[in-house]
TrEMBL record:
This is DUF1468 domain-containing protein. The chain crosses the membrane at residues 36-55, 76-103, 109-128. InterPro entries: DUF1468. Residues 5-137 form the DUF1468 domain. It comes from Achromobacter insuavis. Keywords: Membrane, Transmembrane, Transmembrane helix.
């Protein structure tokens, strides 16, 4: 039954994403497909996966191991915090913090998570902002980047 519930929830999410994404329009054409394509494509993929789960679901599922539900809730909280702090902190700091906290959830040590978070956030900032010309928020480091 869990698979079917997840499938129905995915279908509802896909419907909401389609409704919310349908009205997205850029004030000027800067890409051939426009900004509406990404949320609609993502909604299609989520909807197809949800449809499969709702149709084929019902397989017996093992319960989550001890402590997994708490880690899942923390992951959702971290993702929400990342979304809310992304603009203010900027891409580099927000991504580094998110990487450290998620790495710790999966059992990584503080030093490895911190090093990985800093290297990854700087690498992706340079890749997207400087190489691919995708504007990312500088946040607190605006004057340095």
């Amino acid at each position: 039954m869990n698979d079917r519930i997840l499938g129905i929830a995915a279908l509802l999410l896909a419907a909401f994403m389609t409704w919310a994404g349908w009205g997205i329009e850029a004030p000027f054409a800067y890409e051939p497909v426009g900004p509406r394509a990404f949320p609609l494509l993502l909604a299609l993929i989520i909807g197809l996966c949800g449809l499969r789960l709702a149709y084929k679901g019902g397989n017996p599922v093992e319960p989550n191991p001890a402590g997994a539900n708490g880690r899942i809730a923390l992951m959702v909280a971290f993702a929400a915090g990342y979304a809310f702090l992304f603009q203010w902190l900027g891409f580099v700091i927000a991504t580094a913090l998110m990487t450290v906290f998620v790495g710790r959830l999966f059992g990584g040590g503080w030093a490895k998570c911190a090093l990985g978070g800093v290297v990854m956030s700087v690498f992706f900032f340079v890749l997207f902002d400087k190489v691919l010309d995708v504007v990312l928020p500088g946040g607190l480091l605006e004057n340095l980047v």
